[in-house]
From TrEMBL:
Protein's organism: Mesorhabditis spiculigera
Domain GCVT N-terminal: 26-285
Gene3D superfamilies xrefs: Aminomethyltransferase beta-barrel domains (3.30.70.1400), Aminomethyltransferase fragment (4.10.1250.10), Probable tRNA modification gtpase trme, domain 1 (3.30.1360.120)
One GO term of the biological process aspect: glycine catabolic process
Protein name: Aminomethyltransferase
Taxonomy, superkingdom: Eukaryota
EC class name: transferase
Broad class of the protein's primary localization: mitochondrion
Amino acid sequence: MNRAAKLLPTTIRGFSTKAEGKKTCLYDLHKKHKGNLVNFAGYEMPVQYADLSIKDSTIHTRKYVSIFDVSHMLQTHITGKDRVAFIESLTTADVEGLKPNTGTLSVFTNEKGGIKDDLIVTKTDQDFIYMVTNAGCIDKDLPYLQENAAAWRSKGKDVQITTLDGRGLVAVQGPEMAKVLDTDIDLSKLTFMNTAVGKVFGIDGCRVTRCGYTGEDGVEISVDPAQAATLVERLLAAKESQVRLAGLGARDALRLEAGLCLYGNDIDENTTPIEAGLAFVVAKKRRETLGFPGAEHIVEQLAKKSWKKRRVGLVAEGGRAARGHLPLNAASPFGPATVGFVTSGCPSPCLGKNIAMGYVDTPYAKEGTVLDVDFGTKQTKVTVAKMPFLKTNYYTGKKN
């Protein structure tokens, strides 16, 4: 295993030590700034940079501003007069009910109500829906969209799928993001999950969306790939705050502290949004209109509260950090009984404790329940805890 791979937290799946992978438009910038690269979801991506440890990079993001390359994610435009109904046939989102230039977290579901992928779908004020889905699911998401669009067109419907191949996507995250972002977009009016197009550091045609996957205030900027490195260098040169590059390691710790799921670890096709504690992604209107795969099963779970397992947060004051797949045991009259399993875990740089999330049988999902993480030869006690582990700081336009 190469040095960069050793730095990658064990919670992250989808990486390998193969030397070659696809490159984002910021690959040369990563090399220039001494990023430690691994093959992640088929792309050569930085785990961290030479100037900061993963721990220090995580803390830095929560204090100042960090830049993440997320250009490996799939950006898509869905066009045609039937585009809203089309996306609603595949996801749990109420796209029709979204205001223009507003987005929502949603999921593709399968016929059993399991999660095929999580995504952000945005209803723009132009003639398309803008969607961002996970890099690790491109090989199944894109054919899924294209095949379903073709089926709709065969029935006389008007819908097309256009991928924004190679386009840059830069996440700028941290409480001082708004101080450093030089843009003609009024950030005071751009609230969480809203989007606008404008100039950023003099670069035209940037789509700026107030979102991110760290729990902090931030934006994701979709930018012409030829201008992406220029955008990042200008951010790094900003004097209004301390701006640093960050990689997969810090991103994973940040999202876990914020209680956010990683597809393939914490959610998958065998887990429904309800079991995952993501009932909010099933829009209220869609619980009535249904029409997406597995809708009846999901709505039945909601109505009857009939789920058998539940995603929970886990905190340990000491011992080893839990990692994916490890069993969670509870005491019983017959000895330890396995009641769940860990899906993600790491030492929290900002809390100074080991944190994790996982699934447990519903009777063990109550906050305060003490369980054992089974490492085989040793066990570590963890306590079921409320998520997010740290208070989130999304910008809603309202004072906290």
